[in-house]
Amino acid sequence: MTRTYQSTTRLGLTALLVLACLLLAIPSRAAAPVVFTSAYTDLNTQCRYARSGAEGSDAPMICPGQGGYRLTISFSAFAADILVESRDGRFSRPIASDQAPNYAREKGRKAEWRLANGKPFAVILRTFAYRSNDLGEPDFSKKVGEKLVVKGLEGFEHIDVEVDARTTPNANARARQLADEHYAK
């Protein structure tokens, strides 16, 4: 009787141990909540001109970003275009076009990087619309619109929203909220 009891107990303990190991191996259904934060690039102080531009064009400005990303501001004959790109060149996405040539030097100009658990997934940038002159060209001295552009980074390209900064109360907070809401979609 003692021998049967010991083998039954040993078998029960073994089964219990196997069950405990299986339960520990199953991922939890309740995933830890995502922690959203922001980091900033100060375009006034952190952007630098690249050594040279493409032949026939001005040298672009390079602005450091987060997690292997950066902003590039390129210049045409009369305007600036801004794009976000990975430093390894695998990812590139336009953010804004036809901005004033001195865009990065306007006081207080910053890019906001949205981070999920410390990893960047979107960038938020303030952009402007300008009145046109008689030739249909933008008159950079007369801003007629202002918006916050929210663009997703690699793997989050579905994030592509704008917030009217002139008519939306707490526009910066709203842009962050939209980026975060679109993170999991």
Describe the structure.
- With 185 residues, the chain is of the alpha+beta class.
- The protein has one domain.
- It contains three helices and ten strands, in the order αβαβββββββββα.
- A five-stranded antiparallel β-sheet has the order 1-7-8-9-10.
- About 3% of the residues have low confidence.
Short description:
Residues 1-30 form the signal peptide. By secondary structure, the protein is of the alpha+beta class.
**Order of strands across the biggest sheet?**
1-7-8-9-10
In round numbers, the mean pLDDT is: 86
The rough form would be described as globular
Parts with pLDDT < 50 across at least 5 consecutive residues: 21-26
First-to-last CA distance: 62 Å
Taken together, the total number of domains comes to 1
What order do the SSEs take from the amino end to the carboxyl end, as H and E? HEHEEEEEEEEEH
- Roughly how much helix do the residues carry, as a percent range? 10-25%
In this structure, how is the largest beta sheet organized?
Answer: 5 strands, antiparallel
Quaternary structure annotation: single chain
Q: Helix- and strand-based class? A: alpha+beta
Q: In angstroms, what is the radius of gyration?
A: 26 Å
Strand content: 35-45%
Total strands: the figure is: 10
Signal peptide: 1-30
Keywords: Signal
Q: Which key terms come to mind for this protein?
A:
5-stranded antiparallel β-sheet; single chain; 10 strands; 185 residues; alpha+beta
Write the layout of secondary structure elements.
Blueprint lengths: L1 H24 L10 E7 H4 L1 E2 L11 E4 L4 E7 L4 E7 L5 E8 L10 E7 L2 E14 L5 E15 L7 E5 L6 H13 L2
Antiparallel strand pairs: 1-7, 2-3, 3-4, 4-5, 5-6, 7-8, 8-9, 9-10
